Amino acid sequence: SIIPLEIELPSLRISLRDYLDKDEDYRVARLAELELLDEKRIHALNHLKVYQNRVSRNYNKRIIPRQFEV
């Protein structure tokens, strides 16, 4: 049988986990990186909402209201 590559060879971060957990500079840098990632996600979500509102407004402008009798 063949062992999948991800099981056989751990990533560099996993290999150095014990060392990096003790390094305070790494912790601070990692926290800053995660906070920046959160900011980027929030910005992308806001951009998506603006885009969806714009598409919805343009679509609704072109709709001709129709009434059906039952």
How many distinct domains? 1
Molecular shape? elongated
Average pLDDT level: 84
N-to-C SSE series?
HHHH
Give the number of DSSP strands. Answer: 0
List the helices and strands and how they pair.
Layout: H1 5-8, H2 12-15, H3 17-22, H4 24-62
Report what the structure shows.
It is a single chain. By secondary structure, the chain is mostly helical. The protein has one domain. The chain is 76% helix and 0% strand. It has helices at 5-8, 12-15, 17-22, 24-62. The chain is elongated, with a radius of gyration of 25 Å.
Question: Can you describe this structure in just a few lines?
Answer:
Helix content is 76%, strand content 0%. With 70 residues, it is mainly alpha-helical.
Fill in the keyword field for this structure.
70 residues; mainly alpha; elongated
